[in-house]
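Standup notes, structure subgroup. Blocker cleared on the adenosine-5'-diphosphate input:
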Amino acid sequence: MSFDLSICCMGAGYVGGPTMAVIAKNCPNIRVCVVDLNAKQIDAWNSAELPIYEPGLKEVVESCRGKNLFFSTSIESEIALADIVFISVNTPTKTQGIGAGRAANIKNCELCARTIAKVATTNKIVVEKSTVPVRTADAVRRVLACNDKGLEFQVLSNPEFLAEGTAIDDLEKPSRVLIGGEETPGGQAAIAKLVSVYANWVPSSQIITTNLWSSELSKLVANAFLAQRVSSINSISALCESTGADVSEISRAIGSDPRIGPRFLQSSVGFGGSCFQKDILNLVYLCETFGLDECAEYWHQVIKMNDYQKSRFTQKMVSRMFNTATGKKIAILGFAFKKDTGDTRETASAFVCRDLMQEKARLHVYDPQVKREQMMIEFDYTLNVNTTTEPDLEKLITTETDVYKACEGAHAIAVLTEWDEFKGLDYERIYKGMSKPAFVFDGRNVVDIKTLREIGFEVYAIGKPWPKE
Ligand code: UDX
Ligand code: ADP
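Run returned:
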C-alpha cells in the first residue's frame, strides 16, 4: 500500500509509543514507524505483551500494527524514509556537571539530531516531542544545519500533554495540541504540515500554534502549575491533620469556585511521575540562569513541599506505631506513581519504602502492575538504594502478587497508590489476619475510614483529622 506521508518517531517509551499508535489509528494514510535503540523494548511492542501498561493501548496498537504502524530498530533507514521525524526520547535531570540536579540532560535529543543529519537524504520536519529545556530546538536546529548535503530541516516543538493512565483518552480527545515553529515562511509551512496531521481527528480550534520558545516553555509551565496545585492542597492537608478540618471537604468547597475548579485538588502522599519534578527543576534552573532568583525560589518551593509531604507521612506512621517500625511487617499497597500505570518513576511510594527500610521495617509490597525488578530499578536509580547501600534490601522487601498475603500478619497497611481495587478489599478478612492494633495509613484517601474504624482498625488518612497523640 502507498501512503501519503511517512512519520518516524525516535523513542518507543511512555510518550512515543501511545502517541504514535493514536496518530496511526486516526491517519490510515500515514505510515508511522516507532524506532528505539533498545531492541527489547521494540520486541515487546511487536509482541502480545506491550512494554507499558496503559488502558486501551493494546486495542489501538493491535488495530494498526503491521498495517500503518510499525516498531523497529532500523533507526537509520526509517529516518531516511520519513517526511516527519519526531524526537521522543528521555531527557532525565543531569546528575553531573553544570546544572547537575536541576537541568535536563538533552544528550539523547542531540544524538537524535546528529543521527538525522547523518542519514537524511531529503528535507525533513523534525518535531521535538520530549519535554526539553527552553531553546533545545535551537540546539537541534544548529546540529541539523551542520549537514553538508544542502538539506533543509525545519524544527518544530510539539510538547505532549498526555497523563499516564489516561493516555489514550488524552490523545484521542486532547484539550489542545500545541505546535511551535519559526516565524519564517519555511517554519510556517512546517507548522501547517503538522497541523494537517492532527486535523485528522482534532478540531482546528484546539490546535494552538506559537513561536518555538513559547511552545517549549508552555510545557514546563503547564506541569509546574499542575504540580503547584498538588503541593498547595498537600500543604493544607498538614494543617487539616492538626486542626480537625477535612481536606476532602476543603477541596470540594474551594473547587466549586469556577475560578479554582475541582480537578487536581486530591491531597496525596506526594506527586511522582517522570515530569513534574523534572520540569519544575528545569524551570528553576532557567530562572536562575537569567538571575531571577525570586522566581526560581518560588517554584522550587513546590518541590520542597512535595518532599516534606513524603517524609511527613512516614514520620507520622512511625510515631503512631509507638515510635518504632523495626522488625514490623508493613503491607505497602501500591508502588506505581498513580493508578492505572505500571510506571514507577519518582513514585512517592519508593520514598516512603526507603524511609521505612531505614527503620528496618519488613515491607511486603503489592502493586497490580509493578514487578519486583522494576521496583529495584527505581530504588537504585532515584534513591541510590541497592544491595551495596542497603545490604538487607532483599530481606526487607518482599513483593507479593496477592494483596491478602501482603497484609497477613502485618502490623500496618500503607496505601500509597490509589488503585480502585484497594477500595473494595475484604477489610474484615484483612483485619482478622493482622497483628493488633491494626493500623491503616491511607496516603491516597481511598479507604472508607468510618467502616474500617467500625471493623477495629486504627485509621490515619492524609488530610483528615488525626487524634492527638
Ligand atoms: C503529568 C501531566 O498531567 C501531563 O499533562 C504531562 O504531559 C505529564 O505530566 P502524569 O505525570 O502522567 O502527567 O500524571 P498526573 O495525572 O499529572 O499525576 C502526577 C502526579 O500527581 C501523580 O503522582 C498523581 O498521583 C499526583 N496527583 C495528581 C495528586 O497527588 N493529586 C492530584 O489531585 C492530582
Ligand atoms: P518518555 O516517558 O519521555 O516517553 P521513556 O524513558 O519511556 O521516556 O522512553 C524514551 C525512549 O527513548 C527509551 O525507550 C529509550 O531507549 C529511547 N531512546 C533514547 N535515546 C534514543 C536514541 N538516540 N534513538 C532512539 N531511541 C532512543
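Discussed briefly. The chain has two domains: 5-202, 276-461.
Next: hand off to the docking folks.
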